[in-house]
Amino acid sequence: MAELSMDFQFTSSIEKVWKALTDSDTLAKWIMENDFKPVVGHTFQFRTEPTEWWSGLIEGEVLIVDPPNRLSYTFASGEEHTVTWTLQDAGDGKVNLHLEQTGISSEQGAEGAKYGWMNWFEGFEKVLEDL
Question: How much is the pLDDT for 89?
Fold first, then answer.
């Protein structure tokens, strides 16, 4: 098994970063349409256009909600991963955001996951500016 670990730093409040990770409408602006709720046990879907190789659905279940410090959920499309976000106020108006994704079957899968998150995070800072 492989895992992915990534760190980001944003000039924002920890509350805004938390909202960007947990608010369904905000998530839709930077990841995809969804029915996410930050409630332990809630099952949800991220939805996008299907392709000939993929249904366009990512199924998940919320595991941990500790506002505004930690969020964890399963993330399944073929294989099931666990995604955990850890937020830390770094002072001076900065927030450290740590992503850990476990349960990935191969290093190639981890590279694919990293590529996916990097694409999604291109829209994350814009979302923070608009909050």
Answer: 96
